[in-house]
Design a protein that fits this description.
The complex is a heterodimer.
Chain A (H helix, E strand, L loop, with lengths): L1 H47 L21 H7 L7 H32 L5 H13 L3 H13 L7 H8 L4 H12 L4 H8 L4 H12 L1 H17 L2 H6 L8 H11 L5 H35 L2
Helix pairs in contact in A: 2-13, 3-6, 3-7, 3-10, 8-9, 10-13, 12-13
Chain B lengths: L1 H13 L3 H6 L1 H6 L2 H36 L2 E2 L7 E2 L3 H6 L3 H33 L5 H14 L3 H11 L4 H8 L14 H11 L2 H12 L3 H9 L4 H29 L3 H6 L13 H11 L3 H29 L8
Antiparallel strand pairs in B: 1-2
Helix pairs in contact in B: 4-16, 6-10, 6-11, 6-13, 7-11, 11-13, 12-13, 13-16, 15-16
The chains are: A mainly alpha, B mainly alpha.
Chain lengths: 295, 328
């Protein structure tokens, strides 16, 4: 009797574990299929950058038949007399400037929203959230007229000033959410120790905001690095171009068949983004996840 | 010293009603006038970067843009007031109507398809299996680079004559030809590019799925609900706030697509204006023809349309978005 029951339950658990294994196999097959589709364009781009130009379009082979570094030599050769490294430097200045501007302005503004009670705060907060839903194209024309009248076209000021003034509500919101999660007892303890708002912010909360600051910094860097419309509007001289605009110039200038160098430049333009992604993926993905949950 | 005393008194007094004080900041401050004034000063000081940015770079420009929408302005001569001429001209401009149509199709088809893909993959990944975190990151990656010029260049090379898409078509005996040069195929190509970036909404869906209490699904299973029924009757309603958030964000984002279409079409919006997205046409009018009044009118039409759609989404959300205790 007992043996019979054991056999039955053993058989049941065997079926269950077999079912679990089948499920697991189905899961991995499906997920790998999706992964293949997702990764294909990227893998194709990287491998194509090592192919001779003629082999890139019109050849279904993913793997290069002949490997070449000519595309990279061409890409590093620069465009129209401007060195490739000038574009990299411009991109870096813009990206680092954006990170500094956004971290400074968003942390301070978020502190006001999350930790200081003053009349009108609720209204400002609603307005700030509202700007997240606003199509920003409504401000590009007047902003252009403004910066143009101040003679700032072909400088980085029009691209960096908004970052120092916290116009990207996403970052302020992300930090407000983070601050709201920190216990208020910290503020009160610091206040008892004689700290004013600046002291509480600078000495107590800012160090604790590290994860939110890191997430914001990475997003700020990547978005600035990939930004196309801003530089397209304000930077007209090739020696002020960041990489995306240089890439566009390159695509327009080179003959249609020179895909190799285009691919090489496209890869080079994405290298910092991919590095950030590999190192900080956790921060990025979790940052996106919390943003959605508390919206 | 006296500040510290007031401070301690305030924190003691407010301890119990902290939640209420947070939701209505004005009242909390009013009870203690001296502290409130210092707080107000500090509040404005800390908020000054955002306030300055809002006034100088958002609100001010918006008002200016509203004024320009009723003028003829080309950056070199003073604006001439022309009443609603820009708006009447807009609706008689076939390229404007085309750009509105292209954008509408992109939003109406692209957003639902992208969200469906995001939700399906999120549900798949939510099952406990090894490597879930790695897949989540991998699938998110395209969202990070999707709007870049690099990806637009790759997309163009994949869908141009003789590109991969064309080769696959020919292999299956379908009519040859790339998608880039075919006005009928550019929209599917652009939508594919959008769907490829399903990772960001997927990550948000996954976070929402994690919040659904397992007991709810178990209870439904005990009551005899199959997987489909459980998904429709439990998962979807529980997920509706997140779905609403994604729908709102993706819709607003889709209205603003620009750089990929710009690169893929070589700055023209072609072929046959089939990639002439709304913001693309706005850019061409404002910054290549320098018709800034006309472009401002376009910008305000966009603000109104997006505003109306947002309002409709919020209004209808009452019927299908369920807010329960924890999920929010």
């Amino acid at each position: 009797m007992t043996t019979a029951m054991t056999t039955v339950s053993a058989a049941a658990s065997a079926t269950a574990s077999r079912r679990r294994r089948t499920r697991s196999v189905v899961f991995h097959v499906l997920v790998l299929a999706i992964a293949a589709v997702i990764l294909y364009p990227g893998v194709w781009m990287v491998l194509s950058s090592f192919k001779p130009s003629a082999d890139i379009v019109g050849n279904v082979n993913l793997w290069p038949e002949t490997w070449t570094l000519d595309n990279y030599t061409a890409a590093f050769g620069g465009i129209g007399g401007v060195s490739f490294w000038t574009f990299v430097l411009n991109s870096l200045i813009l990206a680092v400037g954006s990170v500094v501007g956004i971290v400074l302005s968003a942390t301070v503004s978020a502190y006001a929203f999350a930790r200081i009670s003053f009349p009108g705060r609720g209204v400002y907060f609603a307005v700030m959230i509202g700007t997240m839903l606003l199509p920003f194209h409504v401000v590009i024309i007047p902003q252009y007229i403004l910066f143009n009248s101040m003679g700032m076209v072909n400088t980085f000021v029009p691209l960096l000033a908004p970052k120092f003034l916290a116009t990207e509500a996403f970052f302020v919101f992300l930090m407000v959410q983070f601050l709201r999660g920190l216990p208020r007892e910290l503020d009160e303890a610091a206040r008892i120790d004689g700290c004013g708002h600046w002291g509480i912010f600078r000495l107590v909360l800012l160090p604790l905001m590290r994860p939110a600051v890191i997430t914001s910094a990475i997003f700020a860097f990547i978005w600035s690095w990939n930004d196309f419309l801003g530089p397209l509007l304000y930077l007209k001289r090739p020696d002020t171009y960041p990489l995306p605009i240089a890439l566009r110039l390159y695509v327009d200038q080179t003959s249609v068949s020179d895909y190799g160098a285009q691919m090489a430049m496209a890869v080079l333009a994405l290298v910092p983004v991919l590095l950030f992604f590999v190192v900080f993926q956790r921060y990025l993905v979790d940052g996106v996840a919390t943003q959605g949950l508390k919206g | 010293m006296s500040v510290t005393t007031t401070e301690r008194g305030r924190s003691a007094g407010r301890g119990g009603v902290r939640g209420a004080a947070t939701s209505s900041p004005a009242r909390g401050g009013a009870a203690k006038p001296p502290r409130s004034r210092a707080d107000t000063r500090a509040g404005y000081a800390f908020l000054s970067p955002w306030l300055l940015g809002f006034v100088l770079l958002t609100a001010g420009p918006m008002l200016m843009s509203l004024y320009l929408a009723f003028t003829d302005y080309n950056l070199f001569r003073d604006p001439q007031f022309i009443g609603i001429d820009n708006f009447t001209a807009l609706f008689a401009d076939p390229r404007f109507l085309k750009s509105a149509q292209v954008t509408a199709v992109y939003v109406l088809v692209g957003v639902p398809v992208k969200l469906a893909a995001a939700l399906a993959v999120a549900v798949l990944l939510n099952a406990k299996h090894r490597g879930q975190g790695a897949y989540r990151s991998m699938f998110y990656a395209p969202s990070l680079i999707g709007a870049s010029v690099s990806v637009a260049i790759v997309w163009r090379a994949m869908f141009i004559d003789d590109g991969i898409a064309d080769q696959v078509q020919q292999f299956f005996g379908l009519p040859a030809g790339g998608w880039v040069g075919n006005p009928g195929m550019t929209m599917p190509m652009m939508i594919l590019l959008a769907v490829w970036q399903f990772g960001a909404p997927m990550v948000i869906f996954l976070a929402g799925l994690k919040q659904i209490p397992a007991e709810l699904l178990e209870a439904a299973a005990v009551d005899g609900a199959g997987p489909v029924r459980r998904f429709v009757a439990v998962t979807l309603p529980m997920l509706s706030p997140v779905l609403f958030f994604n729908l709102l964000l993706e819709t607003i984002g889709a209205f603003q697509v620009f750089s990929s279409a710009f690169i893929i079409s070589g700055g023209t919006g072609g072929p046959a204006d089939s990639t002439l997205f709304y913001t693309f046409y706005l850019y061409l009018k404002g910054f290549t023809e320098f018709r800034m009044g006309y472009a401002s009118a376009m910008a305000w039409v966009l603000v109104l349309v997006v505003g109306i759609i947002t309002a409709i989404l919020f209004r209808t959300s009452r019927a299908w978005v369920h807010y329960t205790g924890d999920v929010r």
